[in-house]
Amino acid sequence: MPGDVLEYEIAIHNAETKLATEVDVDAALPQYTEFVAASEGGTWTGNGIRWNNLTVSPKGDRLLGLKLRIRSDAPIGTAVQFVANVKGHQGVDITEVAVASDVAPQTENATVLLRKSADRTEVRPGETITYTVYLRNTTDHEIQSLTVEDRLDLRYMQVVGGDAGAMQGDRIVWTIPALASSEDWQVRYTVRVAEGTPHGAELLNVVSVSGEGMENISLTQRVFTARISVVSTLPPAGAPLDLLFLLGSSIAALAPTVALRKRVR
Question: Mind listing the pLDDT tens digit for each residue in 148-166?
């Protein structure tokens, strides 16, 4: 909600057996957020947060903490897209600003975690995007007859592979007979962006879940929106192979190069 503080944890994992040096990390300040604090020497640059000349031990991890506040003038429904970059690798989190009735569940344990992630934040016409849809039952009871629907913009997107469900018009539909308490479920699928997709177009995907036993679960926990921008050219990555950058979520299994843990309070 407006005024809430988002806490991110950026995890950098060195996949090599030698020390990683001169590791710089940049995180842009998303629209409608304010910088609060950063750990591990992170500094505010005026339009983002930067960590300079970090080292990561062989086969080791380096965790960077960051706090941002949602501004009071953030419109309801705004998607706050947080992006962090290191050595050509990029990680993304999208958080939607909502009203109190959507953010707070009606009962203490009535929350279902639904998330969708992509292996990139920008794409060129003709390229592919791999999505991961993740669902976890965090209630104290079993949920039955679940339906997961993922709406696609078929003007610009075509499903080309992965764990695709049944296509029904402009959406992919998966059915889950039951999901026990603390049980999770996920699928991955790939779409191709049409060659004629205009530069600057925004590809929106809205995934939702419904089922028996979800009557007291708030809308925010049952609907998730992902956005990817289309560009005509992408900057060269120039990324060395000795460093694996992770930006994901503790509640979702994201892409292999993508661990960000986020808390709202």
Answer: 999 888 889 999 887 778 8
Could you give all domains of the chain from N- to C-terminal order, each with its CATH number?
5-264 (2.60.40.740)
Tokens at 188, concatenated = 């991955």
Measure CA of the first residue to CA of the last residue in the chain; give whole Å.
Answer: 9
Q: Show the DSSP H helices in the chain as ranges.
A: 100-103, 219-222
**Model confidence pLDDT, tens digit, residues 35-85:** 999 999 999 998 899 999 999 989 888 889 999 999 989 888 788 888 888
Closest CA to 226 of 119, 135, 148: 119
pTM of the model: 0.50
Following DSSP, what letter does each residue of 76-115 receive, concatenated? TT-EEEEEEEETTEEEEEEEE---HHHHS-SSTT--EEEE
Q: What are phi and psi of 183, to 5 degrees?
A: -85, 145
CB atoms within 10 A of CB 154: 14
Measured CA to CA, the distance from residue 231 to residue 84 in angstroms comes to 19
The separation between CA 99 and the C-alpha centre of its own chain, rounded to angstroms, equals 20
Distance between CA atoms of 110 and 131, rounded to whole angstroms? Answer: 26
- Residues 135 and 113 sit within 8 Å (Cβ to Cβ): yes
